[in-house]
Automatic annotation (TrEMBL):
<feature type="binding site">
    <location>
        <position position="62"/>
    </location>
    <ligand>
        <name>Fe cation 1</name>
    </ligand>
</feature>
<keyword id="KW-0479">Metal-binding</keyword>
<dbReference type="InterPro" id="IPR004155">
    <property type="entry name" value="PBS_lyase_HEAT"/>
</dbReference>
<dbReference type="GO" id="GO:0005634">
    <property type="term" value="C:nucleus"/>
</dbReference>
<feature type="binding site">
    <location>
        <position position="233"/>
    </location>
    <ligand>
        <name>Fe cation 2</name>
    </ligand>
</feature>
<feature type="binding site">
    <location>
        <position position="265"/>
    </location>
    <ligand>
        <name>Fe cation 2</name>
    </ligand>
</feature>
<comment type="pathway">
    <text>Protein modification; eIF5A hypusination.</text>
</comment>
<dbReference type="InterPro" id="IPR016024">
    <property type="entry name" value="ARM-type_fold"/>
</dbReference>
<protein>
    <recommendedName>
        <fullName>Deoxyhypusine hydroxylase</fullName>
        <ecNumber>1.14.99.29</ecNumber>
    </recommendedName>
</protein>
<feature type="region of interest" description="Disordered">
    <location>
        <begin position="147"/>
        <end position="173"/>
    </location>
</feature>
<keyword id="KW-0677">Repeat</keyword>
<dbReference type="GO" id="GO:0019135">
    <property type="term" value="F:deoxyhypusine monooxygenase activity"/>
</dbReference>
<keyword id="KW-0408">Iron</keyword>
<dbReference type="GO" id="GO:0005737">
    <property type="term" value="C:cytoplasm"/>
</dbReference>
<feature type="binding site">
    <location>
        <position position="97"/>
    </location>
    <ligand>
        <name>Fe cation 1</name>
    </ligand>
</feature>
<comment type="similarity">
    <text>Belongs to the deoxyhypusine hydroxylase family.</text>
</comment>
<keyword id="KW-0560">Oxidoreductase</keyword>
Length: 369
């Protein structure tokens, strides 16, 4: 579903995203970005692409993600330029997301470039290109891929489709595939998203709490993998699921100084998207120590959002996550409510859809005034 905006509103969104004033808070720029995602269209592609000149790796990572999700092939040249990164300005995290976005857009014309960068010096870029190639070939050259429909519960375009359910499918069998480093990443990703679906089906269902928790634990075991790309996708999925059972592993990953910044940033945003202290209908203790329990997720995000010793992308992610957390627990949660008029009813988010963070809702009050 798209949002209709006036030229004046579109200009305000553009100015906010691109920080024309020079002092726009990062979380407001994120809100503008995800509102532009909901607007869509050729003009939005060009506005978002201008943001790749920004110094913030976190923002540029999200720009690439959005361009992959809006399903407009005019974004392809911009994303290819970011992947190539001729002037060395973008960096590994942004280039990886550009490659993933090309996979999401699934243009056959991108295959040659993606295959070329399967030998990139960056492991995360190499692996992303490998998965993107496999996804595009799956989409276009397999009967299953051509027939596949978007999952209405997860309306994002994921790096790999969930593997199709089988008679002997179980959390245990999918976990085995997930952790088997001898098989292609694309197949392991398919098991990852299948586990996500199992957790989603069992979460909040009476009598299935153990199944949900086991699924989350199976996914969390993926944090032990040697691939930062793989680990970051686990954190992303935890943001989609919003399961309180994932909070301990996400807190650990976010604060682990030995972890890759790309993984830590995704863990922070997932915590903001979950927007919970983990005390809603959960049996057992989620926090590893009394100090964490006293601070809670919100307190820890606040601490890390200003922690000078934290890597910039982690600190910025906590700032955005903090805004997401507070926003989703406020009475502002109406989709694009800054665009409603006196004669229009607010557009509400479909409860069944599981989106991450800013995808769930957009509040334009602060940027459309």
């Amino acid at each position: 579903m798209s949002i209709q905006v006036s030229p004046e509103q579109l200009q305000k969104l553009s100015d906010c995203l691109l920080n024309v004033k020079g002092d726009t808070p990062l979380h407001e720029r994120f809100r503008a970005l995800f509102t532009l995602k909901a607007v869509g269209g050729d003009e939005v592609v060009e506005i978002v692409a201008k943001g790749f000149a920004d110094p913030s790796a976190l923002l540029k990572h999200e720009l690439a993600y959005v361009l992959g999700q809006i399903k407009n092939l005019k974004a392809v040249p911009h994303l290819e330029a970011v992947l190539i990164d001729a002037d060395g300005f973008q960096g590994e995290m942004v280039r990886h997301e550009a490659a993933e976005a090309l996979g999401a857009l699934s243009s056959v014309q991108s295959l040659d470039l993606l295959k070329k960068y399967k030998t990139d010096e960056s492991r995360s870029v190499r692996e992303t290109c490998e998965i993107a190639v496999d996804k595009i070939e799956y989409d276009h050259f397999t009967e299953e891929g051509r027939a596949r429909q978007l999952d209405p519960n997860f309306p994002t375009t994921d790096p790999a489709p969930a593997s199709l359910p089988t008679e002997d499918e179980s959390t245990s069998s999918l976990r085995s595939t997930l952790l088997d480093t001898s098989i292609p990443l694309f197949k392991r990703y398919r098991a990852m998203f299948a586990l996500r679906n199992i957790v989603a089906r069992s979460s909040g269902v009476k009598g299935k709490e153990d199944e949900a928790r086991a699924g989350v634990q199976a996914l969390a075991d993926g944090f032990k993998d040697g691939s930062a790309l793989f680990r970051h996708e686990i954190a992303y999925i935890f943001g989609q699921l919003s399961s309180p059972y994932s909070i301990p592993s996400l807190l650990y990953v976010m604060r682990d100084s030995a972890e890759d910044d790309m993984v830590r940033h995704e863990a922070a945003e997932a915590l903001g998207g979950i927007a919970s202290e983990g005390d809603e209908g959960v049996e057992g203790e989620l926090y590893e120590n009394e100090e964490d329990k006293q601070k809670g997720v919100l307190g820890i995000l606040r601490e890390w959002s200003t922690l000078e010793s934290a890597p910039p992308v982690v600190r910025e992610s906590c700032q955005v996550a903090l805004d997401m957390y507070e926003y989703e627990n406020s009475n502002q949660f109406q989709y694009a409510d800054g665009l409603k008029t006196d004669d229009s009813a607010p557009v509400e988010q479909t409860p069944a859809q599981r989106l991450t963070g800013m995808d769930r809702g957009v509040d334009l009050t602060s940027i459309m005034a």
